[in-house]
Amino acid sequence: MFDLDVQSGKPVYEQLMDKLKELMINEVLQEHNQLPSIRILAQELTINPNTIQKAYKQLESDGFIYTLPGKGNFVAPPKSFKNSSKEEEIRIELSKVLAEALYIGIDKHEIYRMIKEISPLAKGGDS
Q: Which of 47, 68, 109, 113 is the residue whose CA sits 20 to 30 A from 12?
C-alpha cells in the first residue's frame, strides 16, 4: 500500500495517519471504502498492531474514518472530516504560513492563484 520510514524522527503512527489522509484527500480511498484490518496492515507494514490501532483511533477522533463494530474501519464522507478543533488548528497554522508568505514578499494575488491551483486537488473539501 505504501512505505513508512521507521528511521524518521516522526512517529510511525503519524506517518501512517498522514499517508491515509493523503489517500483520502486524493480520492484513492473514497468514502465508505473499508480500510485494511489492523492485523493485515500490521503484517504488510511489519509494524506493531498497536501502532495501527493508535493511528486509526486518532483518524476516527479527527473524523476521517468511522468504525462499525465487527465490520471494520471505513473512510468517512468528506463533510464529516470537519472537526472544529482540527479546523481551528488548521486555521492557526494557515494564518502563520500566510503571514510568513506575505512578510517575505509573496504577493496576495500569487497566494490566491496558488489556492485556485490547489482547490481542484482537494476534491473532498469545499471549493
A: 68
Tens-place pLDDT, residues 84-100: 667 778 888 999 999 99
Percentage, residues of the chain above pLDDT 70: 88
pTM, to two decimals: 0.67
Residues 6+ apart with CB under 8 A from 7: none
- The pLDDT tens digits of the residues spanning 25-68 come to 888 999 999 999 999 999 999 999 999 999 999 999 888 999 99
Give yes or no for a contact between 60 and 78, defined as CB atoms under 8 angstroms apart: no
For the chain, the structural domain boundaries read 12-80, 82-121
**Three-state secondary structure of the chain:** CCCCCCCCCCCHHHHHHHHHHHHHHCCCCCCCCECCCHHHHHHHHCCCHHHHHHHHHHHHHCCCEEEECCCEEEECCHHHHCCHHHHHHHHHHHHHHHHHHHHCCCCHHHHHHHHHHHHHHCCCCCC
